[in-house]
Amino acid sequence: QVQLVVSGGGLVQAGGSLRMSCTASGNIFSINSMGWYRQAPGKQRELVASITSGGSRKYADSVKGRFTISRDNAKNTVYLQMDSLKPEDTAVYYCNAAIQTSLLYENNYWGQGTQVTVSS
User: Fold this and answer.
1) N or C: which end of the chain has fewer CB within 10 A?
2) Tell me: the pLDDT tens digits for 61-100?
3) C-beta of residue 97 within 8 angstroms of C-beta of residue 35
4) Which among 107, 118, 115, 117 has a CA at the least distance from the CA of 4?
5) 59 vs 50: CA distance, rounded Å
């Protein structure tokens, strides 16, 4: 069994910063990609940023230059540093990870959502 536990998020004024972390635990053979998604009210869930085990990063155009994703493979943890936050960044943020529980079996796991609210 695998769990993703998210910490961070909260309320911040526009222009401020927040940092979130997501730690995977349980029956883990290896972790491939890790990432962050968000879902605003009335909108579909969208990819914010992702990072492979080798460190290759992808960002949504809306967050490029403001958000930074990183990971600590030794700690099975992915981070999202969010700077210059805007009200339109307000959403529930979710951690996601592609995790192998054995050499042949990989599944997609989600952490609990955490609310990020940016006030204007």
Assistant:
1) N
2) 999 999 999 999 999 999 999 999 999 999 999 999 999 9
3) yes
4) 107
5) 7
